[in-house]
Amino acid sequence: DTEVTQTPKHLVMGMTNKKSLKCEQHMGHRAMYWYKQKAKKPPELMFVYSYEKLSINESVPSRFSPECPNSSLLNLHLHALQPEDSALYLCASSPGPGGETQYFGPGTRLLVL
Amino acid sequence: QKEVEQNSGPLSVPEGAIASLNCTYSDRGSQSFFWYRQYSGKSPELIMSIYSNGDKEDGRFTAQLNKASQYVSLLIRDSQPSDSATYLCAVNWGNAGNMLTFGGGTRLMVKP
I need a labelling partner for B1 at 20 to 30 A (CA). Which of A50, B99, B102, B111 fits? Predict the structure, then answer.
């Protein structure tokens, strides 16, 4: 089973709202990722968690705040977003942080008004 | 700057034909290579991973890797209209953190 789940599927928020995206995997994977994908563009890496510790932050603005409460769960907390942050947010996981295949969840489509 | 290049397409092939998708990358130190398929509005789905020079076959799909030429390709035999999607080539540079860099994707259209 290579399933990564994400909730919610869709999210509409105002620029003053606070919301969170959730990602879960039960494959025993020890690396988890957040990507952002704009229309007709490839996914862009935002954050990498390796063994529940943040290992990579690709210069993402502080209005995006990741959290890894345990090895199966990854959250992305959103606050004071801008309309240009509207995108598909993808979570992925891999068995470890060493070049293994990454498996993607279905994504959360975010619209910031 | 580590780069992954793909022809954006669209690549149009008739049903039953072989579709050939190509990808070049900039860093000879790259270690892992992946092909993902992405339907419009959906998330990327893994098609194939390849780590060693040569061919790797899985059903109708064959990935080919040539590290000397810094080139990876995906062949789709007996193309079906359901194969119409954007195909993303991704390269892992082997650095810490398992960072993938994606090419821009090639849009494939299989016409009945």
Answer: A50
